[in-house]
């Protein structure tokens, strides 16, 4: 018997008495022993569920990534403004809405798994054309605003590096448009994501700034309502940037796309809860870091990205603006591509239009037109000269906050529709928390709008 | 012809002049190409929903926008909760995701067109245009004329999104069953998984199994898990053993063994045999459903015995020749064509191709797949160290093994994850 590989197909099969194989010895995976019809067989083809640490990483991974990327330009601006203006006074809001965020996100995830459909699809099928038009308008206004804020973020970040926004914003818009439409986006996405890891510096900076911890605790656990129009404005901004209509849309669709079936929904819950808790933890540290540096030093107004970057100085010293700029640029680019894409996708789906980045312009013209329009709109507004950056960003988050209650009603009605959700219907606790969140946000929005309306007519409701 | 959006503004009037608002219409979805309206629903003063059978309708008066019935009070109460099993035009079909079979894509039923035919009202077409939206939003003020882009209901498939609501094979006459399994599979990846599972239960079993075979792995598992156990086992039995083995391999261990025990003995033995090989080896991608006969037979004898054998398995292009049925040592192969054109009295050994490129069951799957593709053989035989024929790696299996990387540009790109 020769040690050489047998000549494959060169000699008649019958003549080669035994084939010596050309392959190197392989590591044979251990088999799973199971009993079938009383016979014990070893099966190597069965996939075993991951156990131990790996299992937790698989469950928590996506939530962590989403949370670290979730703090985009608007979020950073709002949290920084809150910290600078009111110190630790607004942290209690974050503590309360962590529960709200977890509940709302979980409901959307559950809706996605139970129906296999996106939020706008369900609204279309359950409520008909009229309500869909309302929901689509809200989504377009809220998300359009966010797209603007991402390009404002790109502009602000580039100016920290000394590049004019009039160069950076059009360039960024063109780049994102090209990357998404012609492919290689998924690869670039990872770089953007890595850039946002800079924001993990906030917790460290917050601790190094030596905040007055008893005061932080007081701010976190003793609600303090100030009847001050700025205070209410920022409060609605915090609500709007933390619980965004866009995030609900995204959460639901991502579960659908991941292919989570209703019978495997259970573990996904942990992911959503963890994501909500983690991202709000980061936000709270942002507030603390800004409060302990800017607010304490008497600077209560943040006007530029450079001001906001100063919160990282305790950790990074003079390189703070650079690092802050990197994170801001990464977060803005990341969301600047995904936001228009997800928005066009959801809207197209609600109207039954051909959609998807794998189609070309001829086959999905409306999808691409909407995508392009959103990017052009966002970049265009961001280029208007002399726009107060941080104020605009916060205002967009407030706009999101105003839109939020309407989307929440849709979600709450849908999740309680047994016809759709079956066994995954809301429990009573969820309904209490869900409607509670709705009531809280609506009250805040009504108080804010009412106050501003009265002010318009010359009646001053709030002091300050 | 009337659009549903216009019909919704009709009132239901009885002979005594009492009138009520039309709420909804029920159709018999599987009754022919154009589903007839079977019942109508209307609300009376106290807001209660009532229903009447279509037989009670006397006339449709288009000018007066009225549906004439004998007696409104004869209707039976029909609270919304009692209608879960019905298919209602406004509640279910309008605005639903429907399959447009002519263009092989999904779209939405923005409006529906109905037609009066032999005294019955039937669902005739779906309007998927933007004009239909305008018509509905403006309450018939604009875009009132029906669009020219109406999709004949014959070529539209409506799914309810609840796999358990359909009895198996109920829709066997549907147009969707005329598509190729691959086309159905592509359509089913574009719709929510519950709809896809429902679609599968509508198909006749063999077609459903073929469709499931060619569905993308993720969607395959998702849809499969929505089937009830009887259907699931039926599918596994009808599917090619290698695909069934891959599918079972991804189920939870308990479920997998239960299915294996409940499948017919011969099928489950085949699948179990394949499951013994690691996924990334040739054994993991081969199928053991293969036609072989002894090389000592004459062509006439071979044809006689093949006639019986070929009634079962699917893969028939190549016939493998072995020394005898017990030992199964591979000797060569012959194509079906050569077997048919050969002289009756020739022995198979004389006309077979003895120079066969083979694979060994524990070679790495990926490299083997490339060899199969490069050889352009419809299937390459797999043998063990003793040259015993174990199965074949088909071109299909080889392509699937290598393709994912090149597919990513074709498959729907991920947007949300």
Walk me through this protein's architecture:
The complex is a heterodimer of chains A (464) and B (417). Chain A is 69% helix and 2% strand. Chain A has 18 helices and 2 strands. Chain A has a two-stranded antiparallel sheet with strand order 1-2. In chain A, a hairpin with a 2-residue loop joins β1 and β2. Chain B folds into 3 domains: 2-85, SH3 type barrels, CATH 2.30.30; 163-276, MgtE N-terminal domain-like (MgtE N-terminal fold, Alpha Horseshoe); 292-402, CBS-domain (Roll). In chain B, strands 2, 3, 4, 5, 6, 7, 8 and 9 form an 8-stranded mixed β-sheet that branches. Chain B has a 4-stranded antiparallel β-sheet with strand order 1-12-13-14. Chain B has a 3-stranded antiparallel β-sheet with strand order 11-10-15, with no helix packed on it. The longest helix of chain B has 11 residues, at 265-275. At the A-B interface, β1, β2, α4, α10 and α14 of A face β11, α3, α5, α7 and α9 of B.
- Span from first to last CA of chain A? 97 Å
At the first level of CATH, what is the class of chain A? Mainly Alpha
Structure summary, number of beta strands of chain A: 2
What does the oligomeric state look like here?
A: heterodimer
What is the CA-CA span between the terminal residues of chain B?
45 Å
Specify Rg of chain B, calculated over alpha carbons. Answer: 28 Å
Query: What is the CATH architecture term of chain A?
Result: Up-down Bundle
CATH homologous superfamily classification of the largest domain in chain B: MgtE N-terminal domain-like
């Amino acid at each position: 018997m020769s040690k050489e590989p047998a000549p494959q197909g060169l000699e008649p099969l019958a003549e080669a008495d035994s084939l010596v194989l050309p392959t190197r010895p392989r590591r044979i995976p251990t088999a799973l022993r199971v009993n079938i019809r009383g016979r014990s067989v070893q099966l190597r083809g069965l996939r075993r569920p991951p156990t131990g640490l790996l299992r937790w990483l698989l469950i928590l991974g996506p939530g962590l990534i989403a949370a670290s990327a979730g703090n985009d330009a608007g979020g950073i601006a709002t949290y920084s403004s809150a910290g600078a203006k009111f110190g630790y006074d607004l942290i209690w809001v974050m503590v309360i809405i962590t529960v709200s965020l977890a509940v709302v996100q979980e409901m959307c995830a559950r809706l996605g798994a139970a129906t296999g459909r996106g939020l706008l699809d369900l609204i279309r099928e359950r409520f008909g054309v009229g309500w869909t038009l309302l929901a689509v308008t809200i989504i377009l206004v809220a998300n359009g605003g966010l797209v603007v804020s991402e390009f404002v973020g790109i502009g602000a970040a580039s100016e920290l590096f000394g590049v004019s926004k009039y160069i950076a914003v059009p360039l960024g818009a063109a780049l994102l448009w090209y990357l998404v439409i012609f492919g290689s986006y998924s690869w670039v996405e990872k770089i953007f994501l890595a850039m946002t890891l800079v924001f993990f510096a906030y917790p460290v900076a917050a601790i190094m700034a030596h905040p007055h911890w008893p005061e932080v605790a007081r701010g976190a656990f003793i609600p303090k309502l100030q009847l001050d129009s700025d205070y209410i404005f920022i409060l609605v901004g915090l609500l709007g940037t933390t619980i965004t209509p866009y995030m609900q849309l995204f959460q639901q669709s991502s579960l659908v796309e991941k292919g989570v079936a209703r019978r495997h929904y259970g573990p996904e819950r942990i992911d959503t809860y963890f994501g909500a808790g983690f991202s709000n933890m980061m936000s709270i540290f942002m507030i603390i870091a800004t409060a302990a540096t800017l607010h304490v030093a008497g600077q209560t107004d943040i006007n530029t990205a450079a001001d906001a970057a100063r919160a990282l100085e305790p950790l990074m010293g003079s390189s703070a603006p650079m690092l802050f700029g990197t994170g801001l640029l990464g977060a803005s680019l990341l969301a600047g591509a995904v936001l228009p894409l997800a928005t066009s996708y959801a809207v197209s789906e609600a109207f039954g239009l051909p959609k998807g980045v794998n189609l070309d312009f001829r086959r999905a013209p409306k999808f691409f037109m909407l995508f392009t329009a959103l990017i052009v709109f966002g970049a265009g507004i961001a280029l208007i000269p002399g726009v107060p950056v941080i104020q605009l960003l916060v205002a967009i988050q407030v706009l999101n906050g105003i839109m939020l209650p309407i989307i929440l009603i849709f979600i709450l009605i849908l999740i309680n529709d047994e016809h759709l959700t079956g066994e995954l219907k809301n429990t009573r606790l969820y309904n209490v928390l869900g409607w509670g969140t709705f009531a809280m946000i609506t009250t805040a929005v009504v108080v804010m709008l009412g106050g501003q309306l009265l002010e318009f007519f010359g009646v001053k409701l709030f002091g300050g | 012809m009337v659009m549903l959006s216009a019909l919704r503004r009709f009132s239901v009037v009885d002979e005594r002049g009492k009138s009520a608002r039309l709420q909804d219409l029920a159709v018999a979805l599987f009754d022919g190409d154009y589903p007839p309206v079977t019942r109508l629903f209307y609300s009376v003063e106290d807001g209660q929903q009532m229903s009447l059978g279509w037989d009670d309708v006397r006339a449709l008066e288009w000018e007066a926008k009225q549906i004439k019935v004998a007696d409104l009070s004869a209707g039976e109460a029909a609270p919304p909760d009692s209608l879960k099993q019905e298919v209602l035009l406004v509640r279910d079909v309008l605005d639903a995701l429907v399959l447009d079979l002519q263009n092989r894509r999904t779209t939405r039923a923005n409006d529906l067109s109905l037609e009066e035919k032999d005294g019955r009202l039937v669902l005739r077409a779906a309007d998927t245009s933007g004009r239909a939206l305008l018509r509905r939003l403006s309450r018939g003020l604009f875009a009132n004329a029906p669009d020219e882009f109406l999709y004949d209901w014959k070529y539209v498939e409506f799914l309810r999104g609840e796999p358990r609501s359909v009895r198996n094979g109920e829709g066997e006459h549907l147009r969707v069953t005329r598509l190729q399994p691959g086309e159905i599979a592509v359509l089913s990846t574009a719709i929510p998984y519950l709809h896809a599972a429902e679609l599968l239960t509508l198909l006749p079993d063999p077609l459903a199994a073929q469709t499931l075979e060619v569905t993308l792995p993720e969607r395959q598992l998702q849809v499969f898990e929505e089937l009830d156990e009887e259907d699931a086992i039926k599918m596994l039995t009808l599917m090619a053993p290698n695909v069934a083995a891959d599918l079972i391999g991804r189920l939870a261990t308990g479920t997998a063994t239960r299915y294996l025990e409940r499948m017919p003995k011969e099928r489950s033995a085949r699948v179990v045999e394949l499951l013994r090989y690691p996924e990334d080896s040739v054994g993991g991608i081969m199928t053991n459903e293969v036609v072989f006969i002894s090389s000592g037979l004459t062509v006439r004898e071979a044809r006689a015995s093949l006639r019986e054998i070929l009634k079962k398995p699917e893969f028939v292009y190549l016939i493998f020749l072995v020394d005898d049925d017990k030992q199964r040592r591979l000797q060569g192969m012959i194509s079906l064509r050569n077997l048919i054109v050969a002289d009756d009295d020739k022995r198979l050994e004389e006309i077979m191709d003895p120079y066969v490129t083979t694979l060994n069951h524990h070679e790495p799957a990926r490299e083997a797949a490339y060899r199969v593709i490069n050889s352009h053989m419809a299937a390459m035989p797999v043998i063990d160290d003793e040259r015993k024929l174990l199965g074949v790696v088909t071109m299909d299996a080889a392509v699937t093994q290598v393709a994912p990387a090149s597919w990513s540009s074709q498959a729907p790109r991920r947007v949300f994850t």
